[in-house]
Amino acid sequence: MIPAVWLVWQGQHGALGADPVNVFERSLGLWAFRFLLACLALAPLRRFTGLNLLRYRRLTGLLAFFYASLHLLAYVGLDHGFDWSVLWADMTHRYFIILGMSALVLLIPLALTSNALSMRLLKRRWKFLHRLIYPAAILAGIHFFLSFKTLNSVSAPYLAALALILLSRLLPRSRTGNGT
Asked: 123: how many CB neighbours lie within 10 A of its CB?
């Protein structure tokens, strides 16, 4: 929550530069992607280092959803003033927006079922449902890359981290390990 509070404070004090709406919107999206990467990185971190931070997976996942929702709200409300015709025209010309919205849609059932009751009720289906994090992350990564229009010093490290995290899922698991 601290990054959002900091961004609002910066916005209130004119510290977001010449295009504060764009900076605010992009910063929210960047924080959403950071939290999504952090959520995804916890299992490989445990697998390869033994450092068990999985108890933070729910929190980082929910923070990713929260910031992605704020990112969308800033785009729709601040950037387009809730003008649906302008929003629709923008989406038809910049398809990366649809990819970002699709990623957020995939995160909705994950956020709604990130509780003990849902785990108990859904049983094995819960784990299957929560695998939606991977296509959501891929869509978010493509959205992130296309929003920059180029691979640069800002986008490259995040996309490399996403690629490494996803590739780590393809590596064989040790027979005696505690990997997830």
From this structure: 9
Q: Please state the pTM of the whole predicted model.
A: 0.91
**Torsion angle, CA of 129/135/140/146, rounded to 10 degrees?**
-160
Distance (Å, rounded) from C-alpha 158 to C-alpha 34?
8
Cβ–Cβ < 8 Å for 38, 46: no
Domain residue ranges in the chain: 2-168
pLDDT digits (tens, 9 = 90+) for 112-165: 999 999 999 999 999 999 999 999 999 999 999 999 888 888 899 999 999 999
d(CA 35, CA 74): 18
Q: For residue 22, give the amino acid letter.
A: N
